[in-house]
Amino acid sequence: MPNRLPLYPLYIHIGALFLGLFLLFGSVLIALGYQTTLSQSRLQAEQQFSLQRQLLGEAIERHYQPIELSLGLMRQSGLTTARTLSQRLASLPELQQLLVSNPSVSAVYMGYSNGDFFLLRSLTTQARQALKEAAPDGATLLVQSLDQPKPGSMEAVYLFYDDQLRLLERRYQPDYRFDARKRPWYHAASQQSGVVISAPYFFFTTREVGTTLSLNTDEGVLGADMSMNQLSALMAGMTLPPTGQLALFDQAGHLVAGSRPLPDAAHRRLLNLAEYEGSIFPHLSLAVALTSDRQQHLALTDDQGQPWTGVLNQLAKQSSHSGTLYLAMLQTEESLYGPALTQARHNLLLSALVMLLMLPSVWWLARRTARPLIALTQEAEAIRRFDFNDRPLKSSHIKEIADLTRAMVRMKRTIGNFRSIGQALHGEHHFPLLLTRILEESSNLVQAEGVLLYLAQPVGETTGRGLWLGQELTQLPPLAQELAHDDPVALDESSWQQQFAELGPYPGPLWRVSESLTNRRDEPIATLLLLLPQGSAQEQQAKLGLIRALCGSVAAALDTQRLLEEQKQLLESLIQLIANAIDAKSPYTGGHCQRVPVLTKWLAQAACDQQAGPFARFNLNADEQEALHIACWLHDCGKVTTPEFVVDKATKLETLYDRIHEVRMRFEVLKREAHIAQLEASLPAGQSAAVRQAMAPLWQQLDEEYAFVAQCNQGGEFMAPEKLDKLAAIAQRRWWRTLDDRIGLSHEEYSRKAATPAAPLPCQEPLLSDKPEHCIPRPAAEQLADDNPWGFKVKVPQFLYNRGELYNLGIARGTLSEEERYKINEHMIQTIKMLTTLPFPRHLQTVPEIAGGHHEKLDGTGYPKRLREQELSLPARMMAIADVFEALTASDRPYKEGKTLSQALGIMARMVQDRHLDGPLFRLFVESGLPQRYAKDYLTPGQLDEPATASLLEGIPA
Is 642 in contact with 823 (CB distance < 8 Å)? Predict the structure, then answer.
C-alpha cells in the first residue's frame, strides 16, 4: 500500500526543527515589540490631539472674550442712540479700535429698530473683492450706511477712510438694500439678554465663514462678525502627522475651520461634512454622530481603499448662547502604524540575519548526512526523464547506500543501452542500413560473438544478414529447424567452426540463443540468432532477459520499416496507375503524364546544380524531391473526371460520335427529295437523262456546300466572318421531317426537348440549327462561388455543354467550344479539389500547390486561381515549363502537329516575354540542353532541328 504521508528529505527534517524553534521565538518577540510601539504611537497621537484641542479652545476663548467685552462697552456709547449719519460717524475711532485690537473681527455694526444700519468694515482682500467698484487707493476702512434723512426715504452710502480716518470717497449706493431686522443674529439678540454667538455661516458681503456676536440695546442690536480664518491659520500651523488633518465642525456638521483651505464650494454656501469629500478630507466618507460629548475613535476608508484613523471630541461651549464645536484629527493608518511596522521590519531583518548566519552550519551538517541519498534520488529522477548522461555518484560509508548506488549504475547503463537502441532503430529509414544497425546494437548489448538475422521468406529461401566477430555477413547458413527455440543451447562446435573458419579464428565454446520475431498480427517476420560466450547460469539468464526485451524493439522496427516501404510502393503504384489510366483514356494523349515528370525533374536537378545566379541557393532535400515526384505524376489527375469525347474531340461536331454523318444524311435526303420532285414532274421514263441533266446543277451546289461544312468541321486557326455568313446561308435550306423526333429518347434528352412545343408533322426543318435541347444545363454542384474555399478565379460558362450545330461549326479557333474548353481546363480544378482532400503527410503538404499551379501565369492571368509570380513556388513554375514544352512538341494530338524544337522554344520565349512563364527558369532550361536531351528520347526525327539559342534568350533575364 503506497505511503500517503508527505515525504521530506532528511536534511529538511533537521533544518526544519531548528528553524521552527527559532522562528517561533523570533515571532513572539517581534509581535510584542510591534504591539508596544503601536500603543506608544496611539498614545502619542491622542496626547497630541488633546494638546491641540486645548490650544484651540483657548484660542477661541481669546477670540470671543474681547469682542464680548467691547460690545458691552459699546452698548453705553453714543452709537446706539445716534439718529443721523453724522452722529454715528462720531463713533468711528471707537469702532476702529475694536477692529484693530481684534484681527479676527471683520466688521462691527449697529442695526436700528427703525431700519437704519451702520457698519464699519476692514477692507480685507475678501471685502475688496465683494465691491462692485474698486476701493480708492489707501482706503483701509469702509462705512456702509443706511439712514433716513427725511421721513419715508432711505439713503444708502459707502464711505471710504484711510488709517487716519480721513474720508477718501463718498459713494452713493442706490441699489444697496439691507434690513438688519430680518437677519438671524438680530432676531436672536432681541430675544435674549447678553451676547449671543450665532452658528457659523457665510457672511453676506465677504462670503467668509464666521460667526456673529450680537447684543441687544434699547434702540436696536449691536453686532460684530468674527471670521474663522484666524482659527484655520492657527490649525494649519499646528504640528500634525505627515498625513494628518484638523477640522472644526459645528453641531450641525458644518465645517467652519480646518488645517487645509476650504474648497471653492464654500464661497457659495455652507456645506456639511458629507459634502466636503475630496477637499478637507480627500476621498473620505465620514459618518459620525456629533451629539456625544465623549471622545470618539474614527475608522474610515477612502474610495481608493486606503484606511484612515482619527479621534473626534467637542470643544467647551464659549457661552450659554453659543453652539457646540467639534474638533477632529485624522491621519492614514499607514502613518499611525508606520513606526510600529518599521520597528517590526528591523526586528524581522535582525532575526533573518541571525538565522541566515546559522543556516549554513545546519545546512552543511544535514546535507553531509543525506548527500549520497540525494545523489541517488537525482539519478533516479534523471533516469525517469531518460537522461543517461554519465555523472559520478557520491560514495558513502553506509553499506546499504553503497549497494543501492552500484545497482543504480547498472540499471542506468542497461536502460540507456535500450534507449539508444530504440532511438537508433527508430531513426533509421533505409532498410539495409536498419538491418546493419540491428546487428551492431544487438551484439553490443549482450557482448555477442555473432549475430544472425534471418528474414521471413518463402519456403526454401534464406535471406538476411549477419555479424561474426565484427565482420558483416551477407550469405547465411540455412536456419536449422532445431534452432527455432529461445533457450540457451550449446552449439555443435565442429559444424559452426567449418561455417566461419574463413572469417577468422573460432573464439571458443559458445552458447546459442534464438528468438522468433513477430509483427502486430503475430505473424513471423524474422528470427534473431545470437552466439554468446559461455558463462554462469545467472549471467545467461540475465542476457536472455535482455535479448527478449531487445527482440520486441527489433520486431517493431522491422515491421514498421517494412510496412512503410510497402505503403510507399503502394502509393507509388497507385499514383502511376492513375497517371497511366489518364493517358490510356485517350490514344492521343498517351504518355503525357509520364513525360512531364521527366522534364520537371531534369529542370529541378539543373537548378540544384547551379553554383551561381538566381538558383545558387535552390536545393531539394529528399522529402521535397518526393513531393515534387508525386506532384508531377498527379498534375493532371483531375482529367479522370473529363469525358474522353471532350479530350479526344477531333472535329467540331464530334461528341460520343461525329455528328457530321447526321448532316451528311440530311444532304443525302435533300438530293433524293430533289430527284423525286423532278421524277414526279417528268414525262415518260425515256426522259430520265434529261431529268438528271436538269438536277446536276443543284446536286453540284449541294456537294460544294457539304464540302464547305465538312471543311468548317475540321477546325483551324481562325473562322473568318464571310465563312460564318456562308454557313448561316447553307443552314437555311429546309428538309421535310415526317417522323416524331421525341420518341425513343432518354429521359434527360426528352426533358430538354419538352421545353419547346412540338411542331405538327410533317414539318420542315433547317439543314443546320442551334436548338434549345442542344444546351445542357450546368448542375448547381458544378457552379463556383466567388468566395469558393479553393480560391478559384475562373469564368464558369452558363451551360455544361452546347451542342448546337451552327454554334460548334462557327468556333473561331480550334475545335473546342467555350463549354468544352472549360471542361478541358476543369481538370485543374478537379486536380486541386482531389489533392486537397488527400491526407498527405507533413513532408508532402506542398503536392497540391505544385501540381495545381502548372497552368498559372506570372502576370496573374493563369488558371484556375490567377496566382501571381510571388505566389508560385519554383517547383510549380518548373512544371509549367515542362507541361508547355511537352504539349507543344507532342505529336500525338488529333488537332495539331507536334512543333519542332525551334518552334516550341520560340513560342515559349514569347510566353516569357508576355510574363506567362518564368524567365530565369526558361533560360536555365535552354542553356542546360534539356530540350535536346528530351528530343532524342521522345520526339520524331522531323522535329529535331537546332534552335537559335542566342536569339531565343535575347531580353530574357538571367
Answer: yes
Of 933, 949, 944, 957, nearest in space to 601 by CA: 933
Q: What is the pLDDT of residue 284?
A: 38
Cell numbers linked to 478:
540455412
Does the pLDDT value for residue 266 go beyond 60? no
Q: What is the pLDDT of residue 110?
A: 92
Burial 472-495 (b: 16+ CB within 10 A, else e): ebeebbeeeeebeebebeebeeee
Helix (H) or strand (E) holding 163: none
Angle, CA 470 vertex, CA 468 and CA 473 arms, to 5°: 45
821 vs 181, 796, 826, CA distance in Å? 111, 11, 8
Give Cα separations from 297 to 15, 34, 863 (angstroms).
Answer: 46, 21, 87
Q: Taking a C-beta distance cutoff of 8 angstroms, is the pair 797, 818 a contact?
A: yes
User: What are the residues whose beta carbons fall under 8 Å from the beta carbon of 56, sequence distance 6 or more?
Assistant: 231, 234, 235, 248, 315, 327
Question: Is pLDDT of 890 > 70?
Answer: yes
Contact 136, 252 (CB under 8 A): no
Model confidence at 157: pLDDT above 90? yes
**CB contact at 8 A, 884 and 592:** no
CB atoms within 10 A of CB 431: 12
Q: What's the CA gap between 604 and 600, in Å, rounded?
A: 6
Of 489, 593, 493, the C-alpha closest to 854 is: 593
- Rounded Cα distance between 857 and 883, Å, is 13
Give the pLDDT score at 471: 75
DSSP 8-class letter at 759: P
Residue positions counted in the chain: 958
The 10s digit of each residue's pLDDT in 494-527 is 666 666 666 667 677 777 787 887 877 888 878 8
Which residues are within 8 A (CB) of 793 and not within 5 positions of it... i.e. 6 or more apart? 864, 865, 866
Q: Is there a contact between 557 and 473 (Cβ–Cβ < 8 Å)?
A: no
Distance between the two ends of the chain, CA-based, in angstroms? 78
How confident is residue 118, by pLDDT bands cut at 50, 70 and 90?
A: very high
Q: How far is the C-alpha of 544 from the C-alpha of 529, rounded, in Å?
A: 12
pLDDT in tens, 127-140: 888 787 888 988 99
Domains and CATH numbers, the chain: 81-228 (3.30.450.20), 231-334 (3.30.450.20), 409-569 (3.30.450.40), 587-646+815-952 (1.10.3210.10), 663-781 (no CATH)
Integer Cα distance of 636 and 759 in angstroms: 46
The DSSP element (H or E) to which 760 belongs, if any, is: none
Report the pLDDT averaged over residues 154-182.
89
Cis peptide preceding 762, ω within 30 of 0: yes
pLDDT surpasses 70 at 649: no
Cell of 681: 414532274
Contact of 754 with 691, CB cutoff 8 Å: no
Give the list of residues 6+ apart from residue 506 with CB closer than 8 angstroms, or none.
493, 496, 497, 500
pLDDT value of position 285: 40
Closest C-alpha among 849, 855, 845, 846 to residue 881: 855
State the pairing for strand pair 196-197/209-216.
antiparallel
d(CA 333, CA 314): 23
**Cα 647 from chain centre:** 47
Q: DSSP letter string over 721-741?
A: HHHHHHHHHHHT-EEEE-S-T
- DSSP at 768: S
Q: Is the pLDDT of residue 595 over 90?
A: no
Sheet holding 296-301, edge to edge: 255-258, 245-250, 325-332, 307-314, 296-301
Find where cell 505627515 sits.
242
The amino acid that residue 627 corresponds to is A
840 is written with which cell numbers? 498527405
Closest to 280 measured CA to CA, from 269, 301, 299, 265: 265
Q: Report the pLDDT value the prediction gives residue 685, as an integer from 0 to 100.
A: 63
Q: Looking at residue 222, what is its pLDDT?
A: 92
